[in-house]
Amino acid sequence: MTTTTKNSTKSAKNPYPNLLSPLDLGFTQLSNRVLMGSMHTGLEEEKNGFAKLAAFYEARAKGGVGLIVTGGISPNFRGRVSPFGGELSKWWHVKKHKAVTAAVHKYPTKICLQLLHTGRYGFHPFSVSASKIQAPINPFKPKALSERQIWKTINDFAKSSKLAQDAGYDGVEIMGSEGYLINQFSCKRTNHRTDAWGGSIENRMRLGVEAVKATRERVGEKFIIIFRLSMLDLVEGGNTWEEVITMAKAIEAAGATIINTGIGWHEARVPTIATSVPRGAFTWVTERLMGEVNIPLVSTNRINTPDVAEEILASGQSDMVSMARPFLADADFVNKAAKNKADEINTCIGCNQACLDHVFKQQRASCLVNPQACYETELTFDKTKQSKSIAVIGAGPAGLAFSCYAAERGHKVELFDAASEIGGQFNFAKQIPGKEEFYETLRYFTKQLELLKVKVTLNSHQTAETLVEKGFDDVVVATGISPRTPPIEGIDNPMVLSYLDVLRDRKPVGKRVAIIGAGGIGFDVAEFLAEEDSLTNKPEEWLKEWGIDKSYQQGGALVTNHAHTKTEREIHLMQRKTTKVGAGLGKTTGWIHRSTLKNQGVNMIPGVEYSKIEDNNLLFIVNGKEQKLELDNIIVCAGQTPNRTLYQQLIDQNQNAHLIGGADVAAELDAKRAIRQGAELAARI
Q: Quick check: keyword Ribonucleoprotein in the entry (predicted)?
């Protein structure tokens, strides 16, 4: 059984020698060191969803990934994610899974089914756990499993694994991290039992160990068993490093083939995969386990480029790398890397907006930068039978997406923008600390425009007359938005700036600041002003800021009562709504933005009625009480209005015109919707 090759010889023919080297598992071999991590897509529960799921996984297998792990499927009823969640426990469940494995096995890719028992995270009244302790993120309180039920659950893992084998899977991944059932048993935080399944780590880890042992007995030696081990719980009452090692060795002895790294519980108050997390921020913990066991280890979390992945393997931090969302963003990630075309990869920006946010709202997952993800059978870009001459006005996300997809189909596209660079609002977003990944999206679109031979004309203001005169078959209007100015007395005071003044024009901002509007843009401006130096490229400082202890002095590896870096500015983030400030932000990332600003000392004020702006003062009312702030600047982030004038003028001149992006719907500058809208128009035009 081989481990990391640590081959540093990089060439045009072999650009990523470690990433692309095979991994010998003894009874089988993986074609490379890339594991596509588990992602629940929502297709698992849709009617006829497995046909779509097969197309989704087939695209990634065709794209060159070595090993795929599916989204979580429960081994029994009580372990389901939701009342109608996926389950593999009966022989009649097998047939639909065969469609997935058959599709993947058209290519030299292995696929493992993830067996996920949610325990107290199950969003239904039938949930169970080690002890009767309710999760802070779930309204349902679990029942404690009896010993008989524990042994039945172990048997269910083994039975489900055999059914997976019958369905054609090459193996299973037993989920033992992220705060799910096996993790709930292994940690004192949720295991308060006094019987043989609680107390010492040897007792607490028994559920996971016995599940692996029973599975190996049921499926035989020539079947991959991955165990997802929580190496870093990031919660109080989490395991110590010595307990992690003890469990890892026991899992190996029980018959696991590979150990995958699990980072953090879902209830942990530390970000682990958001875009603000430094790339490869947690590879150190996998490296720490290297040498403690003799089976391959997989590092994970915020690995989104082949260069980062190659460095992890070349430096001996793990034997494989797991990337999940990067394969939503680009199914051909591995093939592009192998062809030395990393600059053509559509990089995952870690935004969570179309993937995790959707899944946690029981919607189908997709990808902000790749709307075709999980829609492979529905959103297609076949070559057009009639090539058109199309003008696109506006090189923001919507215009860029449409231009590339339309050109891919064979249309002749010319892209215009009045600015000196492409990107639109992305050029402002990329400046926000923690959103540097937006540079990657603009790099990708720049390369695609070049490859697809889209003519790009910048610094060019177009009118309806000039466009009609040029004789385009269609004109796509993606002219974006204009900031809305709220009707507040004194709003024209020189101390008042718009967010464009700050982010685009870099006008100076004083030490005492009020931000009017606490939507996504308001939070972005607050973070821009509060965090002078981004920690995204400073992993050691980032770990310290979030209280993560690399020395692992106590369970969960958290530092208690650690101090946060405070902003030097006095910042007030204000909104008219009486709801919690930031309540409308992303479901899985909003808490991170709120925590970041709170830690930095930003004052968040809901329920504001603005009275008057006068020199160096903002007068307002909260809860019926008049208040006044002495300020150097007020920054307005109070929404946007769509720029539709050009579109209407084109319609008036009987020009075939289409409206997309912010020019169509300006609400919160939704890049996810804008890119999908551009793609959908390109697919049908």
A: no
